[in-house]
Design a protein that fits this description.
The chain has a five-stranded mixed β-sheet with strand order 1-2-5-3-4, sandwiched between helices. By secondary structure, the protein is of the alpha/beta class. Helix 2 packs across helix 5 and helix 6 crosses helix 7. The protein has eleven helices and five strands. The radius of gyration is 18 Å and the shape is globular. The longest helix is centred in the N-terminal third of the chain and has 18 residues. It has one domain: Protein tyrosine phosphatase superfamily (Protein-Tyrosine Phosphatase, Chain A), CATH 3.90.190. Strand 1 and strand 2 form a beta hairpin.
Length: 223
């Protein structure tokens, strides 16, 4: 019975997403995308709590921003939004895409993951983005806890050369990251780097490029 209900819901969600894939500017479709974001993508949980913080001068983090919040970010000077969820067919993504276009904000879709490790190419790609984007920037994922946390750690390590123990605080309970949940694999990856860095002295970028093995780390994490 549960699987039947789940399948019906998934079909309902998929059909809804297809109906808003190409925003045509109509109020009806816009409102449909807003409802999808609110109910299916849990905007109702983000309505009052934004999980926002300053990562460093010119760098900010938050959970998925609504169109109204993007407008507020634009007024505060944000030039670039890095969407760590990646492009999708979610109502929240279509709203973000359109609002960034309207506001003249550069939207970069660069996916990371909360419960599995990104490839070295994906992590190095984010490091490269940090070097070429127009600041100030906003980093966001869905909840602002895991992917935004990892990206914030990376900014400190690869751009600011922040000492590891300080950079590491960007991925913590303060931002609702739960180390003992499935997203703890991100902590394990950082723990692995810290241990190897004490021996090799490699920077985080060099470690990702030359030593990082997500498959090996995943197997060790799962025991």
């Amino acid at each position: 019975m549960f699987s039947t209900i789940k399948n019906k819901f998934n079909k309902f969600d998929l059909d809804w997403r297809k109906s808003i894939e190409n925003l045509d500017g109509s109020k009806k479709q816009f409102n449909s995308a807003k409802r999808h974001a609110f109910w299916i993508d849990h905007e109702f949980l983000r309505f009052f709590y934004h999980n926002k913080a300053e990562v460093a001068p010119g760098v900010f983090r938050s959970n998925q921003p609504s169109p109204d919040r993007l407008k507020t970010w634009a007024k505060s000077g944000i030039k670039t939004v890095i969407n760590l969820r990646g492009a999708s067919n979610q109502g929240s993504y279509f709203l973000e895409l359109q609002k960034c276009k309207d506001l003249g904000i550069k939207l970069i879709d660069h996916p990371l993951y909360a419960t599995r490790l990104a490839s070295s190419k994906e992590l190095l790609g984010l490091a490269d983005i940090f070097e070429r984007v127009n600041y100030p920037i906003l980093l966001h994922c869905k909840s602002g806890a895991d992917r935004a946390g990892l990206a914030s750690v990376m900014y400190h390590l690869v751009v600011l050369n922040t000492p590891f123990p300080i950079a590491r605080k960007q991925l913590s309970l303060r931002f609702l990251h739960l180390k003992f949940s499935r997203s703890g694999i991100l902590d394990f990856m950082l723990d692995t780097y810290e241990k190897e860095q004490k021996i090799s002295g490699l920077s985080f970028r060099s470690w990702i490029k030359n030593k990082y093995d997500p498959n090996k780390i995943t197997k060790e994490y799962r025991g």
